[in-house]
Amino acid sequence: MHAPPVLEIRDLTKTFPGTTALDAVDLDVADGEIHALVGQNGSGKSTLIKILAGYHDPDPGSVVTLSGASGRERLRFVHQDLGLFLELSAVDNLALRSEFLTRAGRIRWAAQTERTLELLADFAVDLDVRAPLSSATPVQRTVVAIAAALAGWEGGAGLLVLDEPTAVLPPAEAEHLLEIVRGVRARGTSILYVSHRLDEVLAVADRVTVLRAGRLVATRPTRGLDAGALASLMAGDEVDAGYRAGLPPAVHRPVALAARDLRARYLDGVGLELHEGEVLGIAGLPGSGSTELAHVLAGAVPHATGEVRLHGSPPTPVSRAGRLNLPLVPSDRLREAVLPGMSVAENLTISVLDRLRAGPSLSRTRERRLVERWTADVRVKAAGPMAGITTLSGGNQQKVVLARALAREPAVLLLCDPSAGVDPAARQAIHELVAERARAGLAVLVTSADPGDLLALCTRVLVLGNGRIVRELTGTDITEHGLLRAMEETDQR
Questions:
Q1: What CATH number has the domain bearing residue 453?
Q2: Mean pLDDT by 10 residues, the chain (493 residues)
Q3: Does a structural domain hold residue 380?
Q4: Which of 145, 238, 240, 274 has the smallest C-beta neighbourhood within 10 Å, fewest atoms?
Q5: Does residue 361 lie within any of the structural domains?
Q6: What is the total count of domains within the chain?
Q7: Cβ(445)–Cβ(274) under 8 Å?
Q8: What is the per-residue pLDDT for 255?
């Protein structure tokens, strides 16, 4: 006899003023199953998770059943933003999720540390549990969040909801996390796994449920599915999972940006040239300097040294590069780019307010025209320019952040993880947008933990290892296998 589902959802409906976010959705998660939930941004995934978490109430007639007498106590969440205090250690973060061990009003720090080590023992991560989590890697932070969510579950039974756990992880760390997820399932925990990375969904999940525009499209076993078929279910029409911009080589064109002897925490004397109309990729494993490079060029890393030159102008120390027109689109959209208390218009125009003045005041006419132009150019879908930025899907938020950078009319754009946390259709739209700008002459430097971004856009890729450029890939050498092999080889040097 089969065990009852850990989670059973029937006719789940949620309406907001003017929209139906979920329309009679059915979903169940079997005991011991990893069940993936996928869909484009705006498909209803977030609403469904918020209903499970108790943040929203479903419409009357919806049925959500959790098996077991303890009900919601057997339901835990790890959200995309993790909900950790990065200034605090793993010991402190785990204690805040449960309780501090005390005696006579004083914290028993030795016992607290021992319990933290016990909670993390099953996850095979090398982590200084007393150091601030700001110094931890993304996968280490995710493991701390998972351990905190599972604390107090004897035997591991229950349902764990993982929302985009690998959104900004490089391939090696993403694979490590998938192994951890499999280990959590082996302990008896069922998992509802939400991700836009279709390859990892197919690798880790037993079944997948697809939502589109708030409605159930299908629930299928992952065996026999491929990424193209899954993307088609999500988008309703064919999405090119293997999109390539097909930009021509640009090394014969004028140099738009030149950098020399860049040094920082992870960089050890990097120099490079970026040409007009070129999309230059930067690849490397964690600690190689690849994720730090764009921030150094933008003047956003304290104590970095070296110099940068735009279009043959006199060299500028990178410590002063913030004065140059070198806009940076960072990896962590939620923490470093989006201004959550502001509207779409305010998020877009904040970088060019000086151009919108009429005397001492802001010209609302100029502001409106600029917002209309750029939201149309980058194809932002929103209720209107005054809609809150957090009401937009992740893909549309990313387009607004891109528009903010492009509104500065730069000659060079620094772009980090452009498709992190966005669905396949939005991913392709962002790639096409960047390619359009490159064809018009914009020079783009792209760093990404996702090889797909580099494959889609780049005509040249620099591979970093131990803070130096150690390989250059061009043309047909830019393949997923070639990138991963080059990064792994440089890590072993």
A1: 3.40.50.300
A2: 79 81 90 88 82 88 74 72 81 75 70 80 77 82 81 70 78 78 85 85 92 88 85 67 80 92 91 94 83 91 91 89 89 80 86 76 82 84 83 82 88 88 76 90 89 88 89 85 72 47
A3: no
A4: 238
A5: no
A6: 2
A7: yes
A8: 94
Q: Check whether residue 225 and residue 267 sit in a common domain.
A: no
The boundaries of the domain holding residue 93 are 7-235
The answer on 286 and 221 residing in a single domain is no
Task: Evaluate whether 181 touches 34 at the Cβ level (below 8 Å).
Answer: yes
Does one domain contain both 112 and 211? Answer: yes
Of residues 225, 439, 420, 91, the one with CA closest to residue 99: 91
- Looking at residue 155, its pLDDT comes to 55
Is residue 388 a part of any domain in this protein?
Answer: no
- Residues 193, 273 within the same domain: no
- Residue ending a domain, choose from 235, 269, 303: 235
User: Which residue, of 200, 235, 270, is where some domain finishes?
Assistant: 235
Nearest CA to 450 out of 173, 95, 236 is that of 173
C-beta of residue 445 within 8 angstroms of C-beta of residue 297: yes
Note whether 441 and 474 are same-domain residues. yes
79 and 116 in a single domain? The answer is yes
Rounded Cα distance, 377 and 483, in Å: 32
Q: Please answer whether residues 11 and 24 qualify as being in contact, where contact means their C-beta atoms are separated by less than 8 angstroms.
A: yes
Residues 37 and 109 in one domain: yes
User: pLDDT value at position 1?
Assistant: 47
* Distance between CA atoms of residues 472 and 460, nearest Å: 7
Q: What confidence score (pLDDT) does residue 35 get? A: 95
Q: Is 115 helix (H, G, I), strand (E, B) or coil?
A: helix
Long-range contacts of 289-292 (CB under 8 A, 24+ apart): 289/264, 289/464, 289/466, 289/467, 289/468, 290/447, 290/464, 291/266, 291/331, 291/416, 291/447, 291/449, 292/264, 292/265, 292/266, 292/267
Is residue 120 within 8 Å of 143, Cβ to Cβ?
yes
pLDDT of residue 100: 67
473 located within any domain: yes
Q: In the prediction, which pLDDT does 98 show?
A: 67
pTM of the predicted model over 0.70: no
Task: Provide DSSP, 325-382.
Answer: S--EE-S-HHHHT--TTSBHHHHHHGGGGGGGEETTEE-HHHHHHHHHHHHHHTT---
Q: Which residues pair with 308 in a beta bridge?
A: 259, 316
Q: How far is CA 149 from the centre of its chain?
A: 21
Residue 490 region by backbone torsions, left for phi larger than 0, else alpha for psi between -120 and 50, else beta: alpha
